[in-house]
Design a protein that fits this description.
Blueprint lengths: L1 H21 L4 E9 L2 E15 L2 E16 L4 E11 L4 E10 L2 E10 L2 E8 L2 E8 L4 E3 L6 H12 L5 E5 L5 E17 L2 E12 L2 E7 L5 E6 L4 E5 L2 E3 L17
Parallel strand pairs: 9-10
Antiparallel strand pairs: 1-2, 1-15, 2-3, 3-4, 4-5, 5-6, 6-7, 7-8, 10-11, 11-12, 11-16, 12-13, 13-14, 14-15
Length: about 250
């Protein structure tokens, strides 16, 4: 009896620790960027909880991402380093890019109820301040960590609108709208996996997001630009063709 009581006390003591560990958010991955059927670039990122000594705690997160794209008339590369608090709110973002040989920097930090933005481009410096909604994701082009953070935020706060902060011009704030679609199938590292699918609209751009049951991004397709950004070792299974004399189902908008 005493032994069972001690075991129960130990379990009650460790339960909060176990919950904290399972709620910890982390991911790292490499992606290929394809346009049509041709590879045009790569993207990779790592999201890690901040370590206190040897223990990783979900009190804050660091983000590091890199990528490069070479198109017919554009050569683009970027690196970004940022940090988020335990609620995935932006603490800082530092984006460095090179577009056709010209360097651009875009830095974001909270300033009261706003975001303070510092930009350097074409040898000039700019400063801007825009409102900071409670749930905001920093959304550089081809930075796949943004999708992981977006999916995590939606899971944490399902009834709260999410905004995308786009590092273009002096900073563009746009609503990110998700429209869930039917699950599909795929393979990850050779193993079959059920894949969630949702359509994401930011501004005028609609993307198709495919992600794991743990809300980790696997693939992003942008039909209007014929881009497909695919996680290494992931392959999406195409749905079977409709039966003869039956038109394909209309996709939900």
């Amino acid at each position: 009896m005493k032994r069972h009581l001690i075991l129960a006390l130990l379990l009650s003591f460790f339960a909060p620790l176990l919950q904290a560990q399972t709620s910890t958010f982390r991911d790292s991955a490499h992606f290929s960027i394809n346009q049509g059927n041709h590879p045009v670039g790569r993207s990779d990122f790592a999201i890690e909880p901040v370590k206190q000594g040897q223990i990783a705690t979900p009190s804050a997160y660091t983000i590091v991402s890199h990528g490069s794209v070479t198109l017919q008339n554009t050569k683009f590369s970027f690196s970004n380093s940022g940090s988020l608090n335990s609620n995935l709110a932006i603490l800082q973002e530092n984006l460095n890019g090179i577009v056709n040989g010209s360097a651009v920097t875009f830095a974001v930090r909270p300033a009261g109820s706003n975001f303070a933005i510092d930009i350097s481009a074409d040898g000039r410096s700019y400063r801007n301040s825009i409102s900071s909604p409670a749930q905001t994701v920093f959304f550089p082009d081809f930075d796949m960590s943004s999708y992981d953070i977006l999916l995590r935020l939606v899971a944490m706060y399902p009834d709260t609108p999410v905004s995308a902060l786009i590092p273009k011009q002096t900073g563009i704030l746009s609503t990110a709208t998700l429209s869930p679609q039917a699950d599909v199938q795929g393979t990850l590292a050779g193993k079959a996996i059920s894949v969630h699918h949702t359509s994401l609209t930011i501004g005028s751009v609609v993307s198709e997001l495919y992600f794991s049951p743990r809300n980790l991004i696997l693939e992003v397709d942008v039909p209007s630009q014929t881009f497909a950004i695919v996680r290494e070792n992931f392959q999406l299974q195409q749905p079977p063709p409709p039966p003869p004399n039956q038109a394909p189902a209309t996709q939900q908008q």
